[in-house]
Amino acid sequence: MRRREFIGLLCSAACPFAARAQQPDRLRRIGVLMNQAADDPQSLARVGAFLQGLQDLGWDDGRNVRIEYRWGSGDAGRIPKYAAELVALAPDVILAQGSATVGPLLQATRAVPIVFVIVPDPVSAGFVDSLARPGGNASGFLMFEYSISAKWLELLKQIAPGVMQVAVLRDPTLTASVAQLAAIQSVAPSFRIELTAVNVRDAGEIERGLTKFTRGSNGGLIVTASPLATVHRDVIINLAARHKLPAVYFERYFITGGGLISYGPHFVDQFRQAAGYVDRILKGERPADLPVQAPTKYELVVNVTTARTLGLTVPSTLLATADEVIE
Predict the structure, then answer these.
(1) Which residue ranges form the domains of the chain, and what is each CATH number?
(2) Alpha helices, H only, the chain
(3) What average pLDDT does this structure show over 209-231?
(4) What span, in angstroms and rounded, lies between the C-alpha atoms of 17 and 317?
(5) Is the pLDDT of residue 15 over 70?
(6) What pLDDT shows up at residue 11?
(7) Is the pLDDT of residue 22 over 60?
(8) I need a labelling partner for 74 at 20 to 30 A (CA). Which of 4, 45, 52, 235 fits?
(9) Contact 242, 232 (CB under 8 A)
(10) Of residues 2 and 164, which shows the higher confidence score?
(11) Quick one: which H or E segment has residue 196?
């Protein structure tokens, strides 16, 4: 046997970990835990952005990576079971959407790396030690700063100056919803606005709450960010149209679906960015060393057709500052 061949065989036998590390094409496994339904168009857009981001970085599902999905469909009771299932598969990393998925995942594992998206306050939730130095097995991307919730009321008064009462749709079980409502309450007196909180736990509750609210006059609507608002977005948009409520939303897809105006970060882009963190972890970096990132860009989207239907004239100053105007 030649000396070079003998040394190669000896190293393979004595150094199995080194041999394994020299296989760049080893199939890696990624878990994905979503709190929406698998057939939700927004879910597909978000996951599609994640997959495209991975592909741009050289990771192709079925070639050098295998992706396992679990879908919560807005049912928080399913999430712990799905979190445990994904962890049991021993993935190299898990992508998690929202606080409702990250909490159960961290209860299931403190070893598997987790990249989260659309999480409002990971420090207060105990997911990370700090934004700059997460310190554990999770890192990712903030939903947004709570303070932007006050901007929603300002925008509502700009586009519908006659509004005097505002219903705020929120999920009372989420700390993030409580914080968003608090930010809106902090500026309501300066606009002489009376607020009414309406729960968003199911479609029936939303309809009953908004129907009761619209018995008054000069009403408007603010929809705070929550998984349930996303799940029930068609119901919310249709009710706003039926009751002729000028409404402000937290993301663009409400406006493409017929809503009036939105202001917030581009969450689909967070999934594309998350692919970069997953790539870095697959290449050896640790979540503990990857800082949690906040959105750097917020977009204002206005649906002029919906404004006309509501009898509103969109101020030229608002149109000039909009990132997108939908006719």
Answers:
(1) 25-143+267-296 (3.40.50.2300), 148-266+299-326 (3.40.50.2300)
(2) 3-14, 16-21, 41-56, 79-88, 99-108, 148-159, 175-187, 203-213, 227-231, 233-242, 252-256, 267-282, 304-309, 316-321
(3) 92
(4) 63
(5) no
(6) 43
(7) no
(8) 52
(9) no
(10) 164
(11) strand 194-199
